[in-house]
Amino acid sequence: MILGQAATCGATFTGWTGVTRDGNWLAFPGTRQGVWSVQINYIGQPAFGGTPPQVTIVGGKWDFLFLNGLELQGKVLNGTVTWPESKDVPVDGSSCGNGVAVAQANLTLKGGISATVAGCLHDLPAFTVVPPQEWGAFTFNF
Predict the structure, then answer these.
(1) What average pLDDT does range 4-17 have in this prediction?
(2) Phi, psi at residue 3, to the nearest 5°?
(3) How many other C-beta atoms can be found within 10 angstroms of the C-beta atom of residue 26?
(4) Which of 41, 57, 66, 115 is 20 to 30 A from 4 (CA-CA)?
């Protein structure tokens, strides 16, 4: 329970750096520049056409480890993940694609620096996208 509501805790998403010059994503290990992990706690049910159509991120933690040894980490403060009405349509105004959720979260780094992560999450219908796919970008406000 979080804030008196049933919640899911510790949902984990991981990935790596890697985009080509034409904007396509590179398969693992990508550019070999770094790997990241985000664990979130959320309220709501992931679902197409849900009411509401999103889950609310209410906390968590994240870590980004770069090949050069730099490690950034901090807390996930809040955010949302919004799914489209069905697997056949995108989220309104999104470029993520049909059946793909739009995710965004506000983060903090040690030292009080803010950051965001925003992107796309393809994980529904359950067990049809194995492993689930996510892509997007971290923005650090140094």
Answers:
(1) 90
(2) 55, 35
(3) 13
(4) 115
Q: How far is 98 from 63, CA to CA, in rounded Å? A: 29
Number of domains in the chain: 1
CA-atom Rg of the chain in angstroms: 15
SS3 42: strand
Name the pTM for this structure.
Answer: 0.89
Range of the domain at 26: 7-140
Mean pLDDT of 72-97: 95
Torsion angle (degrees, nearest 10) of CA 63, 35, 66, 26: -150
